[in-house]
Amino acid sequence: VKMLSTDRSPFNGAEWAEVEKFQETLRQMKKDGVKLEVCLYAAQVLGVDAEKIIPEVDRVGNGFVSVVGYQRQGYAVVRIP
Q: What pTM does this model have?
């Protein structure tokens, strides 16, 4: 969740370059039609200001509930180790 924020304070300079690269990948994915969501409960627990989350990522109150909703529509979770 911290990598979705525009707040640089949790990262050093080298790390921030990687975060920017990651965020640019997310921007391209959004342009390609990928739906991206962030759990606001997780953001709160991790101390991430929801207002600083990049705009390409949709905010949902609870990611677990969102996943259950998608599963009820026929989507499946693919776990990546």
A: 0.85
